[in-house]
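U., I forgot to send this yesterday:
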Amino acid sequence: MAKRPGTYSEDQAARYLLNLGYTIVTRRHRTPSGEIDIIALDPSTSPNTLVFVEVKSRTNTALTPEETITPLKSRRFHAAVAEYFSQADQPELPARYDLIAITPNRLTHHKDAIP
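Result:
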């Protein structure tokens, strides 16, 4: 069975976060509002911040990965995060919304990037 589009980029982003010491809580978390690519704990914050990560990759230059975060995508992402917290069996931790943008030559981690 072939991997779905974006899985390679999500794997790359998860490896990047693990190399920085993040703990991956879950990947591809689905809610009625949409999917959260990666949920991780940032060890550099105290208390640990729960980081919700959107992974975007592009192989062409028509749009950068950053330009693909539209207001609609942002609303859906925040709705999915709210649904995650409503379903989670854990106290609500501080949260941050990051974007990992991947192009053939670069991986860029934008913290607090999804308004």
